[in-house]
Amino acid sequence: MRKFLRFLALLVIAVALAAVFGTLVPRPLWPAAAGGQGTRHILLLKNPIHTDIAVPLDDGVRRRFAFLADAGLPTDAPEARYIVFGWGGRAFYLETPTWSELKAVPVLKALTLDASVMHVDVAGAIKEPHPDVAGFDIDEAHLAALLDYIAASFRQGPNGSMVIDNAGYSSFDRFYEANGHFNALIGCNTWTAAALRTAGLRTGWWNPLPVSLGWSLRLYD
Asked: Which InterPro entries would you find in this protein's record (predicted)?
């Protein structure tokens, strides 16, 4: 028992050190060459355990993600201002719409290995400044790279992106099958961090939690 507790303590210390270094060591190590003028404003949205990216809606974004409207998302609604994208574990996303509905099996899958899904939401105006919202101005080339990254995260079937029937929290969101597998070490926030790097931002080397991702972005962007 003593050996197990010692191992557990060392494991906790190792994870804590990895999280600290993952926040403080930037990725990429050196800033990229300056791009064009940052005229496109994207948002990072966070809660205590999860992050999403909000992309401003325009005709080009609507065309790029036309399959969202085909699945019934109101991307053409007059009040729609953003499409919000998030990647995460299938069981936790689909079976935990609220914290009060938290179950053991989705948590176990999130800590071990689970299939992944994309969650897409149509949002109106998002308040800034706000403690749970961070805005970044990027140029057109980096926005295009970000959209490429997001689009590549949707798993494709014979008829294109695969919407999950009867899955969603409201009439303004949908779930889609996604590429990759989810676990506690490579999860929703590491996906978000990788997406932001494609948009020309620098993050920490490993950001498993929203707080560490936020700290690294404040350090380097």
From this structure: CHP02117
